[in-house]
Amino acid sequence: MTPTLSGIQLAPVAGAVPAWRAEVDAPRWRAGCEAAARAGGRLAALWASDERDRGQGFSVKALLVLYDGLVCLELQLADATQGYPDLSDLFACATRMQRAAYDLVGVIPQDASDRRPWLRHGAWPENAFPLRHEFKAEQEYPIEDDGYPFVRVEGEGVHEIPVGPVHAGTIEPGHFRFSIVGETILRLEERLGYKHKGIEKRFESMTLDEGARLAGRVSGDSTVAYAWAYAMALEGMTGAQPSARALHLRALLLERERVANHLGDLGFIGNDGGLGFGLAQFSRLKEDVLRSNARVFGHRYLMDRIVPGGVACDVDSASAQDMIVEVLRLKDELRTLRSVYYNHAGLQDRCITTGRLLPQTAARLGVVGLAARASGNAIDARVHPGLAPYDELQPKIASHRNGDVAARIVVRFEEAFESLRLQRLILQRLPQGALRSPIAEAAEGAFGIGWIEGWRGEMFVALEAGAGARVRRCHAHDPSWQNWPALEHAVIGNIVPDFPLINKSFNLSYAGADL
Amino acid sequence: MQKILLQIARTGIISERAPAADESLRQIAGRVNDEVLKLLGRALAIRHVDAGSCNGCELEIHAANNPYYNLEGLGIKFVASPRHADLLLVTGPVSRNMEVALKRTYEATPEPKLVVAIGDCGCDGGVFGENYASCGRVANVIPVDVAVPGCPPEPTAIIRGILTAVTSSRS
Fold first, then answer.
1. Which residue has the higher pLDDT, A140 or A496?
2. Exposure check for chain A: N or C terminus, fewer CB within 10 A?
3. Closest by Cα among A481, A433, A459, A478 to A231
4. Which of B11, B55, B88, B99 to mutate to test the interface with A (most CBs of A within 10 A)?
5. Minimal Cα distance from A143: which residue of B?
6. Which pLDDT does position B171 carry in this prediction?
7. What contacts A80, CB < 8 A, 6 or more positions away?
8. Could you give the CA distance from residue B11 to residue A468 in angstroms, rounded to a whole number?
């Protein structure tokens, strides 16, 4: 059903995702977003593009999630100095996306209180914008020290701990600025963008087909989710229809990615909580899943197994039987370890009430995915809108209302069990059909959207075709954009030594949001 | 406690044999002399630096520490500071936003030191290549002794690369 949004005329976007788009002027941009916020909708993504080659100016896009589906509002700006209405008062998560859109395209959010750079750290000058067409991808500027102004907390006994970008473990780079009194965290300010490597500019040098491989490397731990979202966008714009078999295999791959990551996280959370036994056990189980992936699908992390039109792998009945046996065995192992985790006084003591993200804070920040579900916000794109094949599989949502580290552990366990059930279901009833359907050449200007619930949360790919089946613009959106600010809130009042544990319980992607 | 002990006993020791060194991965020979390598043996301290990867290589570095590969069982451990490290394990194309941090980490690592670049991106920039925001391969920013290709390279390949770096190129 077409959603109603402040009287704006919505045109459907072709494809599997229930989505609509509309060109709006500045008052309607604002009115549409206000109506969406009032209706309990959320901002999924915000990005900008250079449209001067089409005789227009610049375009800013806000992708909104409403009950009936997605709405993409597109605001045309005659020139970059014109500015567009700020959305950060309606959707807190808009702030960083608006800052990134300025760094890359130079579009100005009017009246936004935070106009500091986000992705630009000094690798290109203030007056150059990488996603404008005249900016050459290979252009290199001398690196400047940008003297980023962190927010200072003042008062008696307050001091700062700067951490990163190079961290003390095998993790991704980012900077955390803690303002503390004694051991208690008064404020955490994140500074990310260290991994920005020009992915969106790189997309523009690729054909639509080549883009699939890059999409699968936006965030390696979510390669299946991104590859599927990209394929979904491309299939939508070209009218391609993957077979039921291909869709079921995709869901199998996505659930295997979910289980592998949840196992890894459960191990690391246990380790950070002082239970090294957990890391040894869960990393063993994760390795079993990865080895089985390599054996059946040809890649441990399932990279490049989802391709536009279908999949580049198959499961024969013998492998399906083997995998069902493995799934059942894993379920038993997981039960044993769950009982250890839930009954381990030391671990529970570290996790209960630690790093609490209250349900109202999570809702206000627009938090998504696993972190939202552990804070009482039951959002899961597999359940709603439940795109094929999830409409048939009927996944059960896992949620908890405490919002602490312990709740995020519980949600991971519950989701891992449910994911194993789904895997079994798929393997038992794998329908027949072509592995890969042909893809017609996309018309210039064609637009498609992909929407997938990855293990971390919902992710989007918005894809626009250029001439000659090339990528004109591709925006890949990671749930970490929404969830990183939540970490800043969850740590308030906690002690510094609990930060690694709290951080791990969210396990957000740096690569996915730095692009 | 009983459950934990029972589970440990049930799991048993599952560690596998380490791979042998592979000379074809070596980029620069003899940056650290044989005497030092001999002294170092496998009592090696590694500092991992993610200089801009997609995080796929990090997953495999984690895996190298799982009970199957048991990197630490070889005497090789990961340390929290470059000041304590003998070897830097660097992933990713080096983003320009990480260029300074990587150079500083390299400078902070005491001599004699070794660098192993991990993954297709670390070897040649991979799918991201070189652009306004990416310096491409690790060797464009700091000297690299051994480079391990793969997207991502499997744990065995990563361990082989590390062992190659601490093995004399003449042996």
1. A496
2. N
3. A459
4. B55
5. B96
6. 56
7. A57, A58, A105, A106, A107, A108
8. 56
Question: Beta strand A447-453 with A306-307: parallel, antiparallel or unpaired?
Answer: unpaired
Residue A3 C-alpha from the chain's centroid: 24
Rg of chain B's alpha carbons, rounded to an integer?
17
Note the pLDDT tens digit of each residue in A143-193.
888 889 999 998 999 999 999 899 888 899 999 999 999 999 999 999 999
**C-alpha torsion A102→A107→A110→A112, nearest 10:** -10
Put simply, whether A166 touches B (Cβ < 8 Å) is: yes
| pLDDT above 70: residue B170 | no
Averaged pLDDT, A110-135: 94
Domain ranges of chain B: 2-165
Helix (H, G, I), strand (E, B) or coil at A495: strand
Q: Which two tokens stand for residue B159?
A: 């361990």
Q: What are the Cα distances from residue A466, in Å, to A74, A130, A205, B1?
A: 18, 18, 11, 62
The pairing of beta strand A310-311 with beta strand A306-307: antiparallel
Gap between the Cα atoms of A168 and A505, Å rounded: 17
Give the separation between CA B117 and CA B125, rounded to whole angstroms. 11
Nearest-5° Cα angle at B17, B15 to B19:
130
Residue ranges of E strands in B57-149: 77-78, 87-91, 114-118, 146-148
Q: Is the pLDDT of residue B166 over 90?
A: no
Phi, psi (deg, nearest 5) at residue A406? -60, -40
B2-165, CATH topology level: Rossmann fold (3.40.50)
Catalogue the E-assigned strands of A111-255: 158-163, 175-181, 184-191
Least CB–CB distance from B133: residue in A198, A287, A343:
A198
Q: pLDDT (tens digit, 9 = 90+) per residue, A406-431?
A: 999 999 999 999 999 999 999 999 99
Of A213, A277, A290, the CB nearest to B127: A213
Looking at beta carbons, which residues of chain B come within 8 Å of A219?
54-55
Q: Three-state DSSP class for A442?
A: coil
Over residues A475-486, mean pLDDT = 97
**Band of residue A214 on the pLDDT scale cut at 50, 70, 90:** very high
- Strand-strand pairing, A447-453 and A184-191: unpaired
Rounded CA-CA distance B25/B47 in Å is 20
Average pLDDT over residues A185-212: 96
Domains of chain A: 1-149 (3.30.460.80), 158-191 (no CATH), 199-514 (1.10.645.10)
Give the residue from A103, A170, A305 with the most B CB atoms within 10 Å of its CB, the best one to mutate. A170
Kindly provide the ipTM of the predicted complex, given to two decimals. 0.95
Give the contacts of A92 (CB within 8 A, at least 6 positions apart).
A364, A365, A366, A485
Q: What percent of chain A stands above pLDDT 90?
A: 94
Give the pLDDT of residue B35.
77
pLDDT > 90? residue A341: yes
Contact B134 A223 (CB under 8 A): no
Q: What is the 3-state secondary structure (H, E, C) of A52-69?
A: HHHCCCEEEEEEEEECCE
Helix (H), strand (E) at residue B9: helix B2-11
Residue A488: other Cβ atoms inside 10 A: 15
A508 near A482, Cβ under 8 Å?
Answer: no
CA distances from A240 to A232, A297, A310, A442, A475 (A): 9, 24, 10, 10, 21
Q: Do B97 and A193 touch (CB under 8 A)?
A: yes
pTM of the model: 0.96
